[in-house]
Design a protein that fits this description.
about 80 residues, mainly alpha, single chain
């Protein structure tokens, strides 16, 4: 997840950054799915992974908030551009 965010940021372009944030948010869901599957197949217990599941939800929400910020900022920037 952090590698996706770092890679997107390095492009110095909000569109690319947003796209890589989307990948990172998807990775949060994948991790959560793997953790839930590990419980289902009795590889681990809910108590052992509860904190990681909650962390993936929080992190996914934070990434989503950054995506919303970039989207709103992009809309505001386009409204403030002078007509050519």
């Amino acid at each position: 997840m952090s590698n996706n965010i770092a890679e997107g940021f390095e492009y110095s372009n909000n569109n690319d950054f947003w796209r890589f944030l989307r990948f990172a948010k998807g990775s949060c869901g994948e991790v959560r799915s793997c953790l839930l599957f590990s419980i289902k197949v009795k590889y681990t217990t809910e108590q052992e992974v509860r904190g990681m599941i909650e962390f993936s939800r929080v992190l996914g929400g934070q990434i989503g908030n950054m995506m919303k910020y970039l989207r709103v900022n992009k809309i505001q920037q386009s409204k403030n551009k002078p007509n050519s």
